[in-house]
Design brief:
five-stranded mixed β-sheet, four-stranded antiparallel β-sheet, mainly beta
Length: about 350
């Protein structure tokens, strides 16, 4: 009878201890509730890259939490901890690195986090990703450089993919509609596929600086993805204007007017004319048209002699001048009579 009483007492003590544990600490829920996220997809991972993701863990309990062990079910993912012990409301991270160099195709790993204080328990996290062969570009970006509206030289990019013989380039996409692309497969064997991509700006491309990305659509093992390559271009206007003009002779304070013709193959607006000398003023029609008659008004400066100024013409609110013109100025002293040539009688 005494033995049964001791067993009953022991069971009551254990049951009382169990009831004293908060409900969220019973079973494995107490461990899982420390993670806001338990799943992460890396998506398409180019072979050779090692992307990283960190699962945040936070201790919402009064007791200290101790992590005894963390491990992965697959060699495709390596794991580590930023902290082994978390005090109440302290945060840490489970760091997961996806090891693409040694694997191919779709991979998935279960990350187990084991605790030994205040209770023994564990939580499981999931990571997955699709490891794809990389696409190498030579050069690694498309630089059209500075080009005029009439001259659009092509740019050629060599593309190579090693590994799967099923690799194909299906298309090239872009949010910039002013680039045309030609694709050609140049070689193929069991381990290497080569393509050539010729790109060129189209007529009608807006002037100014443009940049963005082209997206090469590839397919490998029936899985499609888009590989970006950056491009940049600076298109300047084709503006026809005199290289230089002569002004004078003009006396200090005297006004001198001269008209200059500006032409282009398309309609344009003259938005600004700049010069280091404040002696110049400009009158121009603000309307867009192919031919502009610009009136230059020069007020003679105080210093006599020959001077040279450069005028910069801006059109269509571009940040860079579309054309430049030199002005050769001759200023004479108003008080000095002009020289005369005496002829022998």
């Amino acid at each position: 009878m005494k033995l049964n009483f001791e067993k009953t007492l022991t069971l009551l003590i254990v049951f009382a201890a169990f009831l004293s544990v908060p409900w969220e600490l019973r079973g494995q829920d107490w461990a899982r509730k420390m993670f806001k996220e338990t799943n992460h997809e890396f998506g398409n991972v180019p072979k050779g890259e090692i992307p990283e993701y960190r699962f945040e863990i936070e201790n919402p309990y009064q007791e200290d939490i101790q992590i005894a062990q963390v491990f992965s079910s697959c060699g495709c993912t390596s794991v580590s901890l930023t902290k082994n012990v978390l005090k109440s409301w302290e945060k840490g991270e489970v760091v997961c690195r996806f090891n693409s160099p040694a694997f191919d195709g779709f991979k998935q790993a279960t990350i187990t986090v084991r605790f030994n204080r205040p209770f023994v328990g564990e939580a499981q996290l999931m990571v997955s990703g699709n490891i794809v062969r990389g696409l190498n570009f030579t050069p690694n970006s498309i630089d059209f450089g500075q080009v005029s509206e009439k001259n659009f030289p092509p740019r050629t990019v060599q593309m190579a993919s090693s590994g799967s013989a099923s690799f194909r380039i299906l298309d090239v996409k872009s949010t910039f509609p002013h680039i045309k692309v030609q694709l050609k497969e140049t070689s193929r064997n069991a381990n290497l596929v080569n393509y050539e991509m010729v790109t060129q700006l189209k007529p009608g491309v807006p002037t100014g600086f443009s940049q963005g990305e082209l997206y090469v659509v590839v397919e490998e093992n029936r899985i499609r993805r888009e590989v970006p390559i950056k491009f940049s271009a600076k298109v300047v206007s084709t503006l026809q204007l005199p290289e230089s003009i002569s002004i004078g002779p003009v006396a200090p304070g005297e006004e001198f007017k001269k008209k200059v013709i500006l032409k282009s193959d398309r309609e344009f607006q003259i938005t600004d004319v700049t010069c280091l000398s404040t002696a110049f003023r400009v009158k121009a029609d603000p309307q867009a048209k192919k031919v502009h008659f610009v009136e230059l008004i020069y007020t003679g400066e105080d210093k006599p002699g020959r001077h040279e100024c450069e005028l910069s013409f801006f059109i269509d609110r571009e940040s860079q001048p579309a054309g430049k013109m030199k002005a050769m100025v001759e200023i004479v002293d108003a008080e000095k009579p002009p020289e005369t040539i005496e002829l022998d009688q």
